[in-house]
Amino acid sequence: MIETGADGRTWLLSGPRSSYALRLTEHDELLHLHWGPQITLADAEALAAEPLPPARPFESALDGREEYPVEGGPRFVPPALSVRGGGVRGTEWRYRNAAADEDELQLHFFDPVHQLRITLVYRLRGDVIERQVVLVHEGRFGTSEVELLREDPATWTLPARDRWRLSQLHGRWAAESRLVRADLTYGEQVIGSRRGHTGHHHLPWVALDAGEATEESGEVYSCALAWSGSWRVSVHRLPDGTVQITGGSGHDGSGQHLLAPGTAVVTPVFAGLWTDGGFGGASRAWHAYQHAHVIPDAGTPRPVLYNSWEATGFDISEGQQRKLARRAAALGVELFVVDDAWFGERVSDRAGLGDWTPNPDRFPGGLGPLADEVHGLGMRFGIWVEPEMVNPDSDLYRAHPDWVQHQHGRTRTEFRNQLVLDLTREDVRAHLWRRLDGLLSSAPVDYVKWDFNRPFTDVGRPGAAYPQGLWSGHTHALYDLLDRLRQAHPDVAFESCSGGGGRIDLGILSRTDQVWTSDNTDPLDRLAIQHGFSQLHPARVMAAWVTDSPNTQLNGRVSSLCFRFVSAMAGVLGIGGDLTRWTEGELAEARDWVALYKEIRPVVQLGDLYRLRPPGDGLSAVQYVRGDDSVVLAWLRAQAYGEEPAPVRLRGLDPAAAYVCPDTGETYRGAVLLHRGLRTGLTGDLDAAVFRLRRV
Ligand code: DGJ
Question: Are 108 and 76 a contacting pair, CB within 8 Å?
């Protein structure tokens, strides 16, 4: 609900548990009043009536109090908007008007020098607020262009506290989204990506608490960006103890572009959430938001998939894929995905990227016959692509060496022997559309794993005027291509992958069905990655595979099939091992795990997540609750001193109800599970179990 004060200059946005208030002064300064528990309009107006504290020498009274600090005037905080035009720097806006309905507020401002309309947009989505900015050059043809150096969708303002603690999800390839929590000192801490994609090194999310929040209680502020290119989020602790979080697309000067008269720019969304339900409450609210407003068709659970990458690498053939498909189908797999190396001269990572036609030696009849067999086995059929890239050793590159991002007279830097196509070129976009649309029309493909395996380096297009707009233009072109493909092929599902979890954010999630969480499929490492991932994103999009033991990709760790399955069952279950080498006993056991997963899948993928104990040296556990059903997944890393691990206290149950568990054969009192906890019975090293609970 959105309410407007009597003089039309105070606004109050209220979600089910939170409120957000702002005020326009008589000097057209837009001040932040409140973000936190629900308040009334009278409370907001009382806050609005308070005068700004006097500015101290060398400081500005506006700093730390403005909704959207622009560059220019008495401001020294990181500007959310930085523009130039006609030799004039910065913005001085005048208020025009506001438009509000049930869940959207738009505030329109105008800078007469730049002829720039600035609209701040607020959209209420439960307790999540989506913020976005629209910039329109209203000048007539012939007036000077406005140069945009930075246009962030939002600055989020947090109240003064004695202490602030910053949580972030940092990582690197094969070790993505690990949660780090540390005190925030004074000044700015900046996280982001300078790589052209969201990146493995940080998920675009931060959470702040006053050092007191726990998993299940306390105030937590968090923000997440919906953008899949380079980005930047600055968390700034001011001298008075307030914090401002400013973020958006583009890093350093990379986002720079020109706004011509009559044109407009719409920023990505930077969403914010306040909760007093602790870190777990924040995660559940983010998950509910993504289910309701971000992920396509989120109410439909994702199928169990098989992916051939770890089993076959680049050495693939139709016969071998058929064999794997038969084994996968016998396990109960529902979607069979052929990974890399089905196309062109792709016998290693040195060649073939860009040539999206089936390799005739490997698939003499094209992909159709394999797809038909997969369908005949009762599974859906998926393929891997990496459309934004090209190997220099490819027909595409030989025909169009100028189609890649590069700079005149400079080295074309290769990573994984590949270069990045310049998607801001119309001819490249038209080519990709034809190839991909053709591919999806020529064989019965139900699923596309869309990969991106190197960062940007030599961003440029010789001959094009500066600023070239390649950094953000690439992401917009990617979104456009995905949107068009989804529209033309509505039954095809898409997975976002970038060498594992290098492209996971709210932007890509609004146009893909699930993401590849990490190339690290070791089931123990994966628990920490999944713990971090779940801070923001729900199990419904978190793909996880059971692979071989010893782990072939990374660390050679030996683990039981049970531990591997229970680890992967915390998300969208997949299998990625070499099934031709699994024993009959392993295949039979795997069949049972897949059947069990299908039973618990609606609870895992669509239920509420409670992180009962974080991954560590001993016991860790998560719980999902959906209606009368609950599922607990528990893992024991190592048993110490021969002691039985402490019972895990469950959440989200009715204390007055009884719960039956077919896995232990017991019936438990809800109050006992909540207070004393569930005895897992796990022993030794790397043990794991699933507990289903149903209210009786
Ligand atoms: C990186 C992905 O993360 C892997 O799963 C696999 O698809 C390879 N690329 C294929 O080259």
Answer: no
Task: Give the span between the Cα atoms of 329 and 306, in whole angstroms.
Answer: 9
Q: Please report, for the domain that includes residue 625, its CATH number.
A: 2.60.40.1180
Ligand 1, atom 11: closest residue by C-alpha? 340
Cα 29 to chain center, whole Å?
34
Kindly state whether residues 321 and 213 are assigned to the same domain: no
Residues 414 and 499 in one domain: yes
d(CA 18, ligand 1 centre) in Å: 41
Atom 10, ligand 1: which residue's CA is nearest? 340
Q: How many Å lie between the centroid of ligand 1 and the Cα of residue 347? A: 14
Is the distance from CB of 521 to CB of 549 less than 8 angstroms? no
Contacts of 39 (CB under 8 A, 6+ apart): 12, 19, 21
Region 97-109: mean pLDDT is 97
Paired tokens of 661? 């568990």
Kindly state if the Cβ of 499 falls inside 6 Å of ligand 1. Answer: yes
- Condensed to tens digits (0 to 9), the pLDDT of residues 118-148 reads 999 999 999 999 999 999 999 987 788 999 9
In a domain, 480, yes or no: yes
Residue 452 CB–ligand 1 contact under 6 Å: no
Residues 6+ apart with CB under 8 A from 409: none
Give me the number of domains the chain comprises.
3
- Regarding whether 618 and 596 lie in a shared domain, the answer is no
What is the rounded distance in angstroms from the CA atom of residue 610 to the CA atom of residue 287?
A: 12
Is any atom of ligand 1 closer than 6 Å to the C-beta of 176? no
Residues in the chain: 696
Domain that holds residue 467: 305-601
Q: Residue 228: pLDDT band by 50, 70, 90 thresholds?
A: very high
Can you list the alpha helix ranges (DSSP code H) found in 223-348?
278-293, 309-312, 318-331
- Is there a cis peptide before residue 550, judged by omega within 30 degrees of 0? yes
Q: Are 196 and 459 in contact (CB under 8 A)?
A: yes
**343 Cβ below 6 A of ligand 1:** no
**Mean pLDDT in residue range 2-21:** 97
Cα(453) to ligand 1 centroid in Å equals: 8
Q: Is the CB of 500 under 6 A from ligand 1?
A: yes
For residue 42, tell me if it sits in a domain.
Answer: no
Residue 14 lies in a domain: no
**Any atom of ligand 1 within 6 Å of the Cβ of 93:** no
- Which of 95-104, 141-150, 452-461 bottoms out in mean pLDDT, i.e. has the lowest? 141-150
* pLDDT, tens digit, 9 for 90 and up, residues 515-552: 999 999 999 999 999 999 999 999 999 999 999 999 98
395 catalytic residue (yes or no)? no
Tell whether ligand 1 has an atom less than 6 A from the beta carbon of residue 496: no
Indicate the pTM of the whole model. Answer: 0.98
Nearest atom in ligand 1 to the alpha carbon of residue 349 is: 11
**1 contact partners, CB below 8 Å, separation of at least 6:** 13, 14, 102, 103, 124
Cα 407 to ligand 1 centre (Å): 28
CB 519 less than 6 A from any atom of ligand 1: yes
Cα(564)–Cα(562) distance, integer angstroms: 5
pLDDT in tens, 146-185: 999 999 999 999 999 999 999 999 999 999 999 999 999 9
Task: Please say if 519 is a catalytic residue.
Answer: yes
Q: Which of 519, 522, 548, 687 is catalytic?
A: 519
Residues 555 and 624 in one domain: no
**Can you tell me which residue has the tokens 């149950």?**
653
Mean per-residue pLDDT for 612-620?
96
609, containing H or E segment: strand 608-613
pLDDT (tens digit per residue) in 35-94:
999 999 999 999 999 988 888 999 999 999 999 999 999 999 999 999 999 899 999 999
pLDDT of residue 277: 98
- The catalytically annotated residue of 111, 355, 446, 451 is 451
Ligand 1, pocket-test mutation among 308, 309, 452, most atoms within 8 A of CB:
309
β-strands 146-151, 81-85: how paired?
Answer: antiparallel
